[in-house]
Amino acid sequence: MDTLVLLWVTAYTPFLVGCALTHIVYRVTVDWWLLRRRGITVLAVYKDSDYVGEVLVKRYSFTDAAGEERTFRRSGRLVATDPERIEVTYDPCAPKRMTARNGPVVRTLSVLAYALLGLPVTAATAAYPPVSLIVLLSAL
To answer: How distant, in Å, are the alpha carbons of 59, 77, 139 from that of 81?
Structure first.
């Protein structure tokens, strides 16, 4: 019985990590899907920069379809200079959901990371409960 408890405790931690990674994959997928379906792309103009810890974060501003000024706090591929501008895609139904439009290299690397890391971790996390149940029952 002690070995079953030890087996369960040591195997449960990777499952929790897998659940956290699966949640991240889910959020990225939902954001990608919704922005592809109903996103609006605008030009965001450089506003200022600020240090968060030791990382320099650029802030860009744009006006959404409702006429409100929004702030985007990341970087993206420059489309113009003087003033510095990037393309930002946002969801008009949830304006806080936004992302920069990146170049083909960044998009390719994102798809590779998603396919090679995100999907296998999600599949392993989904397979964990039945597999662990079978292992535990066979150990009895």
So the answer is: 15, 11, 65
pTM tops 0.85, yes or no: no
Q: Is the peptide bond before 14 cis (omega within 30 degrees of 0)?
A: no
Contact 118, 23 (CB under 8 A): no
Q: In whole angstroms, give the CA distance from residue 129 to residue 80.
A: 51
Nearest-angstrom CA–CA distance, 9 and 22: 20
Whether the CA torsion 80, 63, 34, 74 is positive or negative: it is positive
- Give kind and range of the element (H or E) at residue 140: none
Average pLDDT over residues 54-69: 92
Residue type, 104: P
pLDDT of 63 strictly over 90? yes
